[in-house]
Amino acid sequence: MPDFRVSRPDPAEVRARLASDRFLLVDVELPEEELAGEAPAEGESVADALGLDFDGLDWFGRAQEQPRAEYLGDWSGVVAPVVRGDRITHVHVLVTERFLILVRRGQGEHVRGFMERLSRQDADDTVAVLFFLLGETLGTFRRAAVQALLEAEAIEDDMFDERRPEQLYQLTLLRRRSAQLHHFLRPFLDVTDEVLTRRMLSPAFPEGRRRLAQEFQTRGRLVLADIESLKEATRRAFASHASLSAGEQNGVINRLAIVSVVFLPLSFLTGFFGMNFTFLTDSMESREEFWLLAVGLQLLVLAVCLYVLHRTRVWRRLREDD
Question: Under a CB-based contact definition with an 8 Å cutoff, are residues 77 and 94 in contact?
Fold first, then answer.
């Protein structure tokens, strides 16, 4: 990495240095879209403020711009997504042989760390710096996916100790997080793969840059695999929760079935002795006969039920489920 110094020049000084310096990295910070007090003036753009006379830069620095990767001879432009906490924003990058301009919205504490890591890299030109920057954007997605994956696995482990309603809500948020990461990263990788593949087919494409492009494509596929692992982890956690809930419901249903079997003879006895047959009204003259039939039939049915449960091992399976 060539020696560099960090400064905060005004736009006029930046325009002068863009025309004269051999190696220049410019970081432009714009206000957040929702915090901007008013819309920019007609015709005003970042390219105009920096004195860039390239054609086709109307998108550069524009809010709500979609992922983009362009190569137009003397310059290349990229709009790359970056994970910042719970949000995903886009950074705009313009690179030539002599300078690299980065445009982002909102304050970015990660820029200082990026500059420190960049100073330790063997990046001898702006294209190598560009691929390093793109690798850093992929790193934000990978860290977000791995962190969410660990949270999903921790929630799944907690389910086997104690299931709580908030666990489903947390899993829903993690599943939405995986969809969000995939939604922002996949279009960016598609457009960059198209441009890089077309460039690498050219015999004039330098071997060093070909290696950087291949490394970036490989790393992008690995990050997508991490996001897919997050999706699979959330699906597995939801399936585990459903399986545990179904097992608990089956246990409750089995217990209710046993209770109903125990009390079914009582229902039968109340219905039987409530019928006005001649035998019941004329032949049963003592209280002892009533209790003998009532208690005797109840005990007989209970004994038969317990014997059947024991012989069929249903009771043992219920205890094992507990």
Answer: yes
**Could you give the percent of the chain with pLDDT greater than 70?**
81
- Residue 42 Cα distances to 38, 39, 57, 190, angstroms: 12, 9, 15, 33
Q: How far is CA 81 from CA 29, 88, 137, 225, in A?
A: 16, 6, 7, 17
Cα–Cα distance, 53 to 44 (Å, whole number):
13
Q: Which two structure tokens, joined as six digits, stand for 73?
A: 């001879």
Tell whether the torsion through CA atoms of 145, 231, 224 and 62 is positive or negative: negative
**pLDDT tens by residue, 231-285:** 999 999 999 888 888 887 887 887 787 777 777 777 777 777 777 666 666 666 6
| Buried b or exposed e, range 16-55, using 16+ CB within 10 angstroms | eebeeeebbbbbbebeeeeeeeeeeeeeebbbeebebeee
